[in-house]
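Structure (tokenized):
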């Protein structure tokens, strides 16, 4: 059961009879405001008022905490001195009161019936504000608005400024201080309980670890920590927390854990599914469940398909009480599968009150959506935080089913490639349902209700045409209208395109359109079945385009990627942005192109295929197709190079890139540059893979090099690695030593970040050999630098030193001071590992000096990181923390999450060395939640450090759980760190 914070009666705010900001009887005098949730202070406006000696502040505090009620002299004496009051206590009280009256505005401190009272305006006491915030938070939580409730509680907690009533003497202050501290803890517990309800369990572990260390006997905190660990997939640690708690309570108090804690342990042992959901035992309403509503809008002129609508609606409405209803719609492109599915989903949505999910699986394209990517998007839509989403397809699918358990959700999977793509995305839970559309019949999708969607009947087709064109125009030319829909093959998409064109041209008659369609030269003999029918539908729209529109349609369809920005489209067409926008908007009007967002455009996958076929057939000269894609590659490379240069001033990498015939975008600041890079990530990588031919290979590789920051962008990092591997293979096949060397160094940089050091080392050996052939200074220097990093990570600092000193020579010869600074910092770490601490500090400071001289902020963090490690080793831990904290802030600002997590780990090391185990555990937990450079290897190191911190906090069972997990990781990788972890796991190590 959740403990609900309750403010003691002594803390109730004043009744509020005095207008806010005024004092009674003195309407023109602004009221002072006071604080007790920290030092007792008073302000008048922005001026802090002198509150006198500790005893005088004790009198002020006693009056503030009486909510405007009068305190007699004897009560004040007891509050200040208790039973040991001095002989002149009464005189002292009067003196203190007189001094306060002189400091405060008139009418604030009043004398009444032999005592004193403070007239405090509403909102003028921090404690009253905190109570009001808590009351509002309770109200928000009561209606299920956990987001608002958490925000309000955090605002209340932010009012604390250290110890309440700090420095105030007397028994009354001691009592109130204890109560205020207890209330603050209850507020924290309540907020953490809400954190767990909304799925922020991974983030809560760090704070709970620190709190349990500070309050080891507080069982509610232990209970929350167990639950947070369990929901984070750390069952062994959760059980270890219980064992630590039981031992501590027995040793300190001679008691067993309370029943709630015992019950939680048993539920964890039996993997109670209810533990993955908000606690049903809490008296507050459960967290508001996220109810996605992702269905696209249904078309207002939906026509026909009545039997299908009825059939599918009946199946979906009967999903309650059944194990998932699945209906799969199949048919040729343009037959209206998506339109029908969306319409049916809207009809049935009332039967799925917990939400509707939608995704275009892009199954007809060359790169269908990966199930794990779709599951990530679905989990986020269902309220799962990014930190709780696992990496593998199997884990995501399992979590997806768990999240849907007990909910009634409709899932619309549009444009599926095959059953294999669909299976992991099916809810699989009672009460849920899935609608699937695909160009293929999914006979191998077990249990699915299959629907083959054919063309419209002539009556339905004519009705759809009429609704779009207008009844008046069709009625007067009914025969011509029938000819039009027949020429369209009764395909809904073809009819919609033809009707929309006619509706947009008021000077045309229906007969005009029919005559155009009758001309077989303007349309292929595609009104049969299969793709030819789809092609005919698109031919109708394409044939009506002006020459400039047709050229834009053809060339823009050559680009891969999910969409295309206006600037990228202008590069493809070699036109000014304004003219390009006019062309694109005109294509949007024809429904041949969609506007994905302001300034971004996309093709339906089948339309894109058709556009490419048109380009092959119609684009003259044929070389213009290659020229268009070359311009797009130049645009991305030029823009990415600008991003790289803004983030790394002084880095000569950009001077070694292939020269482009077209400049990229200009960026006014690094924030905009970084935003552009991540927005265009998918398009950039698609362009790379499209451009791995002989003529554009080097530019494609350089585009990867210039956009290397994408390797740390969780959702895109895997695609970045795959694109880099493809570039390596293409360059090797082409025999291009320069391109292959750069690609392999870039791949090694990715592998290093994720701790795959053996693979990285192999790539770097090949890159070094290639660099010897190509004489490329970029490959030579960076291969040596990365080899130094690898050897630092695998505990070969002597080998690392050799590589890094050579790298520094290459960078200096190339005039690349930025990369020289990087190598200096890496060399600092190598020398540190060999015990040469003084020289290590000198090198790190040299790196900082170079970066500072160049005006670098982004990579300055790496130098401060290196200096922090060296200073810590030298025993200058306060200075080390300053450097590491600076690095942490820079990494966070620049969205370098892996480096951010790694720096938390290093901060934890410093805290542990200074015997600050609580802070060490807190930072180690943050490193685990964020992730680190070095992948699983570094995760094991963090777990080892966390275990050592927990032992110092008396939590040996949880420490052992951390070490066992670390040992399993190290043993699987064959890492030498396994020996140390085995030692820690020996009974004598924890003694």
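Design, position by position:
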């Amino acid at each position: 059961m959740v403990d609900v914070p309750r403010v003691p009666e002594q803390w109730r705010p004043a009744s509020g009879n005095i207008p806010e900001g005024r004092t009674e009887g003195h309407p023109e005098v602004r009221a002072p405001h006071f604080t007790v949730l920290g030092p007792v202070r008073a302000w008048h406006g922005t001026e802090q008022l002198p509150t006198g000696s500790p005893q005088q502040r004790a009198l002020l505090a006693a009056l503030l905490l009486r909510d405007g009620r009068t305190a007699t002299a004897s009560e004040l004496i007891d509050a200040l001195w208790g039973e040991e009051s001095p002989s002149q206590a009464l005189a002292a009280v009067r003196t203190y009161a007189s001094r306060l009256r002189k400091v405060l505005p008139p009418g604030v401190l009043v004398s009444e019936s032999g005592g004193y009272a403070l007239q405090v305006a509403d909102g003028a006491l921090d404690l009253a504000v905190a109570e009001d915030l808590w009351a509002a938070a309770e109200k928000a939580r009561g209606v299920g608005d956990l987001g608002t409730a958490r925000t309000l509680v955090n605002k209340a907690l932010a009012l604390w400024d250290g110890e309440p009533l700090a420095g105030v003497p007397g028994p009354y202050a001691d009592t109130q201080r204890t109560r205020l501290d207890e209330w603050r803890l209850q507020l924290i517990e309540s907020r953490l309980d809400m954190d767990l309800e909304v799925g922020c369990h991974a983030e809560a572990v760090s704070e709970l670890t620190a709190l349990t260390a500070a309050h080891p006997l507080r069982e509610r905190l232990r209970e929350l920590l167990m639950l947070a660990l369990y929901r984070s997939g750390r069952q062994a640690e959760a059980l270890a927390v219980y064992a630590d708690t039981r031992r501590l309570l027995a040793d300190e108090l001679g008691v067993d854990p309370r029943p709630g804690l015992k019950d939680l342990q048993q539920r964890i042992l039996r993997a109670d599914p209810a533990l993955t959901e908000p606690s049903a035992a809490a008296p507050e309403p459960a967290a508001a469940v996220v109810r996605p509503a992702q269905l696209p809008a249904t078309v207002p002129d939906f026509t026909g398909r009545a039997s299908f609508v009825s059939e599918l609606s009946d199946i979906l409405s009967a999903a309650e009480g059944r194990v998932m209803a699945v209906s799969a719609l199949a048919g040729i492109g343009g037959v209206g599968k998506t339109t029908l599915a969306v319409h049916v989903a809207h009809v049935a949505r009332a039967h799925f009150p917990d939400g509707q999910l939608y995704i275009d699986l892009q199954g007809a394209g060359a790169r269908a959506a990966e199930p794990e990517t779709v599951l990530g998007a679905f989990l986020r839509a269902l309220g799962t935080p990014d930190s709780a989403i696992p990496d593998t397809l199997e884990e995501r699918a399992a979590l997806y089913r768990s999240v849907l358990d007990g909910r009634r959700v409709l899932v619309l999977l549009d444009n599926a490639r095959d059953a294999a793509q669909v299976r992991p995305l099916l809810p699989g839970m009672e009460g849920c349902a899935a609608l699937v559309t695909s160009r293929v019949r999914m006979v191998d999708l077990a249990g699915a209700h299959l629907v083959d969607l054919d063309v419209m009947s002539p009556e339905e087709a004519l009705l759809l045409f009429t609704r779009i064109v207008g009844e008046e125009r069709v009625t007067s030319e009914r025969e011509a209208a029938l000819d039009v829909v027949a020429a369209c093959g009764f395909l809904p998409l073809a009819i919609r395109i033809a009707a929309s064109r006619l509706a947009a041209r008021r000077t045309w008659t229906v007969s005009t359109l029919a005559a155009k369609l009758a001309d077989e030269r303007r349309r292929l003999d595609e009104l049969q079945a299969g793709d030819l029918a789809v092609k005919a539908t698109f031919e109708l729209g394409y044939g009506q385009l002006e020459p400039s529109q047709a050229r834009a349609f053809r060339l823009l369809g050559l680009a891969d990627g999910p969409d295309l920005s206006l600037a990228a489209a202008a590069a493809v067409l070699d036109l000014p942005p304004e003219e390009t926008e006019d062309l694109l908007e005109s294509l949007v009007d024809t429904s041949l192109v969609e506007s994905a967002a302001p300034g971004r455009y996309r093709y339906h996958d089948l339309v894109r295929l058709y556009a490419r076929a048109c380009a092959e057939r119609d684009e003259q000269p044929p070389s213009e197709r290659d020229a268009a894609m070359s311009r797009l590659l130049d645009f991305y490379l030029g823009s990415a190079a600008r991003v790289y240069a803004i983030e790394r001033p002084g880095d000569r990498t950009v001077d070694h890139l292939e020269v482009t015939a077209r400049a990229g975008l200009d960026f006014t600041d690094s924030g905009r540059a970084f935003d552009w890079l991540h927005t265009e990530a998918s398009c950039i990588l698609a362009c790379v893979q499209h451009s791995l031919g002989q003529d554009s290979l080097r530019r494609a590789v350089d585009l990867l090099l210039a956009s290397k920051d994408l390797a740390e962008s969780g959702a895109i990092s895997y695609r970045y690695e795959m694109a880099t591997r493809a570039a390596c293979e293409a360059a090797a096949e082409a025999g291009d030593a320069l391109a292959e060397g750069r690609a392999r160094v870039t791949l090694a940089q990715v592998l290093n970040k994720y701790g795959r050091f053996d693979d990285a080392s192999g790539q770097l050996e090949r890159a070094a050999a290639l660099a010897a052939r190509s004489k490329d200074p970029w490959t030579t220097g960076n291969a040596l630098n990365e080899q130094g990093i690898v050897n630092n990570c695998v505990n070969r600092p002597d080998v690392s030193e050799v590589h890094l000193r050579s790298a520094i020579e290459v960078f200096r010869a190339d005039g690349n001071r930025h990369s020289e600074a990087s190598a200096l910092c890496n060399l600092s770490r190598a020398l540190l590992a060999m015990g040469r601490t003084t020289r290590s500090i000198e090198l790190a400071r040299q790196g900082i000096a170079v970066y500072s001289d160049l005006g670098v902020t982004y990579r300055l963090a790496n130098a401060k990181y290196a200096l922090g490690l060296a200073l810590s080793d030298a025993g200058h831990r306060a200075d080390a923390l300053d450097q590491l904290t600076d690095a942490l802030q820079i990494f966070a600002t620049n969205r370098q999450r892996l480096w951010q997590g790694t720096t938390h780990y290093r901060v934890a090391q410093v805290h542990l060395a200074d015997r600050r185990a609580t802070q060490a555990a807190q930072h180690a937990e943050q490193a685990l939640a964020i992730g680190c450079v070095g992948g699983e290897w570094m995760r094991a190191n963090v777990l080892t450090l966390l275990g050592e911190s927990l032992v110092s906090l008396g939590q040996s069972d949880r420490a052992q759980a951390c070490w066992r997990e670390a040992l399993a990781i190290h043993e699987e990788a064959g890492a030498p760190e396994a020996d140390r972890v085995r030692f820690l796991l020996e009974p004598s190590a924890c003694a």
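Reviewer-requested clarification: The CA atoms of residues 244 and 389 lie 29 Å apart. The mean pLDDT is 85.
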